[in-house]
Amino acid sequence: MTLDLSLPSLGFRWYYVWKRHFLVWWKVLGPSLLANFGEPLLYLLALGYGLGMFVGQVKGVDYMAFLATGIVCSNAMNTATFEGMYAAFTRLAMQRTWDAMLAAPLMLDDIVIGEIVWCATRSVIGCAAIFIVAGFLGSIQWSAFIPVMLVIFFSGMAFGAMALVVTAFAKSYDFFLYYFTLVITPMMLLSGVFFPADALPVWIQTGAQAFPLSHAVEIARPLMIGAEVNNLPLHLAVIAAYIAVATYMALVFLRRRMLV
Amino acid sequence: MDSVIEVKGLRKTYGGQAVVDGIDLQVRRGECFGLLGPNGAGKSTTLRMLMGTTPPDSGEIGILGFNVRADARRMRERVGVVPQKDNLDPDFTVAENLSVYASYFGLRGNDAKQRLRELLSFVALEEKANANVATLSGGMQRRLTLARALVNSPDLLVLDEPSTGLDPQARHVIWQRMRSLKSEGKTLVLTTHYMDEAERLCDRMAIMDHGKILVVGSPRELIETLIEPHVLEVSGTGVEEWVARVAKPESRRVELVGETAFCYCKDDQTLKATAPENPRLQFLSRRANLEDVFLKLTGRDLRD
Q1: Which CATH number fits domain B228-287: 3.40.720, 3.30.70, 3.30.420, 1.10.287?
Q2: Contact call for B103 and A20, based on CB within 8 A
Q3: Whether pLDDT at B193 is above 60
Q4: Could you list the residue range(s) of the whole structural domain that residue A199 is in?
Q5: What's the whole-number average pLDDT of chain A?
C-alpha cells in the first residue's frame, strides 16, 4: 500500500468543516460546556483547597494559582484529545460525516485541517472558562488572558493533530484507551501540572521535556502568575514542531484510511 | 460535449486482486444510466473512483469535462451524490442538514434559502423542516438525502442503491422524483439490485461482474438480444423427472433450482401443453425480463 505523502493543500475550505462542528457544538451547548469545564473545575477546587491547605505555596506561588495554571494547560490537552479521537471517530466512522463532506467539494485535507482547528477551538473555549474562574479565585493576571489563550490554541492544535493520528488507526473506540493510558495520563502527571516537574527524578524530568504539555505549562504558568517566561523560543518551537509533524502524519494516515 | 462521463481503461486492485479490471464507460448527457452487478462486482469501487475518493491504479476518468484525478474538487461542485448508506447529520434538523451541506459548496444567503425551500417541497418534507433527522422514517431520510444531493443544482446525479430498504410507497416517490430530474435534463447514474427499478428508470445500463463490464445497452436491447423471449417456470415435487422427460428435448436452456425448473424458450406452447398430464406441478408462463438476463450473465451462485 503506497502512502500519499504530498504536503497538505491549504485553502480556506477547512472553515466550512470548522463551522459545521461549531454549529453542532452550539446546539448541544449545555452538556458540552459542562463536560469541558465542569470536570477540570472540580479538580481545581478540590485539589486547590484540599491540597492547598497542606502545601500552602509552591516556589513562592499560592498552590491554587500554581494548580490553575497547570489545569488550564492539561484541560487544553484533554479537550483536544477527546475531540480528535472520540468525536472525530464518530464523525469519520459512525456518522460518516466525512464521507458526506467528500461528496461535496471538500477534500480530505480540508476536513483534517478543519478538525484540528476545531480541536484547538474547543480547547480555547474550555480553558477560557477555567481561566475566568481561576481569575476570580485570585492570584492570576487578567492581562495574560489573550497570550495564554494563544498558547492554548496552538497546544490544542498539537494535541488535536496527535489524537487524529491515533484515530487514523482506530478500529473502535476501545483503541483510544491505549493512547490515554500510555501517553495522555503520563503526560498529565509528569508535565508539572499538579506539582513542579523538578520534584521528579532527573531521568523522568528529562524525558518529560519531550512532552508538548511540559512546554505549554512552562509558557502559560509564568504568564498567568506574572513572572518571566524562560526559554520562550524553545517552548514555542517544540509546540510548533508537534503541530507540523502530527498534522502531516494525521493527513498521510487519514488519506490512507479514507481514500482507498 | 455529448458525454457526461468518459471512462477509459479503469483499473483498481486490492491485495493483488483486480476489483475493477479495465472498464470503459460512457454516459451521455441527459440519460439515466444503470450500473448493475452482484455484490462484489466492483460497482461501488467504480463509483468511488468516479467521485475521486478512490485513486485508480490506472485509467482515465473525465466527468463533465473535468479530469477527476487532477480536478476532483471542481468536478464535485457540479455533481450530486446519494450514497448507499444515509449519512445525514443526526445533530441537525432537516432544514439544517440542507443548509449546512449547502455551506460546503460555499452557498448561503437568500438564494440558498430559496433553493432549500424548493428542495424541501420537491421531496415533500416542508412540514418536517424543523424535525430532528432521527425522528424521520427511512423513506423520509432517503428523500432528505436526495434533496441534499441537489443543493448545488448538479448537472450529474450519482445514486448508489437509491431505493434499497424502502417500502413500495417510498420507492415510487423516489422513482417519480428521479424521473422528474431526468426531464429537467439532468444526467443520472445509479446502481441497483432491483431489476424492475433498472428496467423502469434506465435508458441504458451496464451489467458488471468480477470487475468487468459484461454488456451495455438499453433494457429492451439486452432482453431482446441476450435471452429467449419466454420463460416457463415449473415447480413441485417430481419436477426433475419432468425436466428429463419433457423439457430437455424441447427447450434450449433449462435451469433447475431446488424444485423449480426455469425453461427458456422461443415458444413455450408445447411445454405448457404438458400441464394437464402433470397435476402435481405448477406452471407459470411469462415473458423474459431483465432479471433473467442478469442471472444468465452472472450465474445463480450466491455472492456475499
Answers
A1: 3.30.70
A2: yes
A3: yes
A4: 37-258
A5: 94
